[in-house]
Amino acid sequence: MTPRILVFAGSIRTGAYSGKTADIAQPELARQGAEVTRISLADYPLPIMDQDLEVEKGIPENAYKLGRLIASHDAVLICTPEYNGSIPPLLKNAIDWVSRIHRDNGRPITIYPGKVVAICSSSDGHFAGIRSANHLRAVLSHIQMEVIAPQVSVPSAGEAFDDDGNFREERLRKGMARLCSTLITHARLHSSRIEP
Questions:
Q1: Count of CB atoms within 10 A of residue 110's CB?
Q2: CA proximity to 119, closest of 101, 134, 99
Q3: Could you say which of 44, 79, 123, 194 is the most buried, measured as most Cβ atoms within 10 Å of its Cβ?
Q4: Global pTM?
Q5: How far apart are CA 166 and CA 65, in angstroms?
């Protein structure tokens, strides 16, 4: 089975380190035999999660689109930046809106529970976005996703990438290869893909 893996970053800033990390993960996953879908959350704009808004207008269509994408893949890889020691609001908002989806076109749908997911983090400081990764791991575990143990955390991210967009450090390159291998293995063993 060729696993389908969805990859995205928690920032849509031009030149975001999380985006650069996702750009490295994409070809590594493909090299190891996965079918990769790389998206940007910029293509799925959502209002701030508000249950009153949900009652008034329903779940936004972009949340459904994102939820269907997640559901139709065997695994997900999320690359998060760190904002004030935690998860960026763009990423948390997207996760929260999709968590509200329990039916799609009248049919029950399970999006998060059992879905295999990997985490990468990055920051310009020495902590490499570890605090954000830990908070994200807690959130993903709470919504019953299967978070794999290997994690790639990129410190001093302003100097971490070469002119071709690759990691300068061999340690990070090996870490990404190991994360991708583990994610693919778990995706094959625990696929919860829903065909669109």
A1: 13
A2: 134
A3: 79
A4: 0.95
A5: 31
- How many alpha carbons fall within 13 Å on the CB side of residue 90? 19
pLDDT at 196: 63
| Rounded Cα distance, 29 and 180, in Å | 6
Residue written as token pair 């190891």? 32
- Whether 157 has a pLDDT exceeding 90, the answer reads yes
What is the H or E stretch that residue 38 is in? strand 35-38
Give 36-53 pLDDT, tens digit per residue.
999 999 999 999 999 999
Considering Cα of 29, then 171, then 40, then 86, what sign does the dihedral take? Answer: positive
> In this structure, what DSSP letter does residue 48 have?
P
Q: Please say whether the beta carbons of 118 and 7 come within 8 A.
A: no
Tell me the per-residue pLDDT of 79-137, one tens digit each, with 9 for 90 and over: 999 999 999 999 999 999 999 999 998 999 999 999 999 999 999 988 889 999 999 99
